[in-house]
Amino acid sequence: MSERLVVIGSQWGDEGKGKVTDYFACRADMVVRYQGGNNAGHSVMFNGHKYSLQSIPSGIFNPATVNVMGNGMVVNPESVLVELQKLHDQGITDYQLYISDRAAMVMPWHSALDGAYEALKGGKLIGTTKKGIGPAYSDKYSRIGLRMGDLLEPEYFAERLQGALEQKNMELKMLGLPTYDFHEVYDRYMEIAKILGPRIVDTSDLINKALRGDKKILFEGAQGMMLCIDHGTYPFVTSSTPSSASVPVGAGISPKWIDNVLGVAKAYCTRVGEGPFPTELHDEIAHEIRERGHEYGTVTGRPRRVGWFDAVVARYTSRLAGIDNWALMLFDVLSGLDKVKICTHYELDGKIIDTPPSTISKLARCKPVFIEMEGWKDDITGIRSYDELPEAAKAYVKKIEELTEVPVGVISVGPDRTQTIIVSEKLKNF
Q: Under a CB-based contact definition with an 8 Å cutoff, are residues 320 and 231 in contact?
């Protein structure tokens, strides 16, 4: 039987999924992105070099790994070309990359509309990256969006483009924005088709053949579960579902293939953008953690908001996504702190609750209930086994396992792929 591993973010994104997927991609035959777009930033570090990805799967660094951008993504062809050029400039030229012919495209007008819609919200910003992701998904579900496979049929693409521009140019005019010329867009995208065309295939067929062929496959999510359009802190969310539950639809496979879910969580919490954040810190500890952890957005460069580990969120996302193990990231960032805290519950209007409420009005009123634990002073960046960790560090890990009822399977003690402790036997065998 083939091995299938789903890697998802379990907090508000930026948990360290890039490193985890890169680590396991070295062992995988295929890496599949199943949702999101180029608003997702993955940072990967190995051999002393840092690489930043936005939409391309993290297995791109392994020449033997087949990388798939699935139908559940919204793909910006221009962004893909820029990413590939950056990789080329860094010496990454030997790779396998395929893009679903059913993936929706992010077109130039989507980013313009994204920024305009955000501006209309006045002081109630969502915190979008203005990459056009939301408008692209909106057009997909309005059934006027363009898809990657359309590029392979010039006449059909022209027909679809003409229909889309008739509506989108009207919207742009109403918002006082420049409109787009059909011929300029058509000619540009036919040039793109010449470059990306050989990579645009029926990826569902490709993935299913790998599943039946006893291949190791890694399914890679973007963003985090608390940014899920259905279950996150709505409306301060992304426009897709990062959950393992969306893998079958976003990759074009049967749900029966999903059997191992790794939830990526920082040893603390961060959030970029707007929205309630119950465990957020506003003191020197927050600044210290932010600087140690280099907590600035990969895509935007925005400083991330910092808070203590939230077991309420972890329990919630574990329930929704069926998480089998935690990958506890940036664990080394907590070294040197006298005390560390974990949020066990929320207090909402005088009542103790153990799951996030559905509205941000209630979530904003939630006060974290903390437990305080001893910190550790040791430098753990060179440790490669769980037993070598300081006792206080192991106690912290065990408390997270106890509060979430999910074992910790991976512990990251530094940014490089070698600075990884694999605790789970099942993950050791992937």
A: yes
The yes-or-no answer on residue 14 being catalytic is yes
Report field, pTM of the whole predicted structure over 0.85? yes
325 vs 206, 267, 405, 427, CA distance in Å?
28, 14, 10, 9
For residue 199, with 0-12 CB atoms within 10 Å meaning exposed, 13-18 middle and 19 or more buried, which class applies?
middle
DSSP 199: G
Q: Which of 22, 29, 42, 231 is catalytic?
A: 42
Q: What distances in angstroms separate CA 416 from CA 43, 65, 318, 412, one per listed residue?
A: 10, 20, 26, 9
Question: From CA 130, how far away is CA 135, in angstroms rounded?
Answer: 10
Cα-based angle 298, 109, 179 (whole degrees, multiple of 5): 145
CA nearest to 298, candidates 146, 109, 427, 131? 131
Alpha-carbon dihedral of residues 106, 108, 112, 114, nearest 10 degrees?
A: 0
Digit-coded pLDDT (tens) for 278-305? 999 999 999 999 999 999 876 667 899 9
43-79: b (≥16 Cβ within 10 Å) or e: bbbbeeeebbbbbbbbbbbbeebbbbbbbbbbbbbbb
For residue 403, what are the β-bridge partners?
none
pLDDT per position as a tens digit, 76-113: 999 999 999 999 999 999 999 999 999 999 999 999 99
Nearest CA to 400 out of 333, 346, 340, 338 is that of 340
Q: What contacts 70, CB < 8 A, 6 or more positions away?
A: 32, 33, 34, 35, 100, 103, 203, 207, 250, 251, 252
Active site residue 42: yes
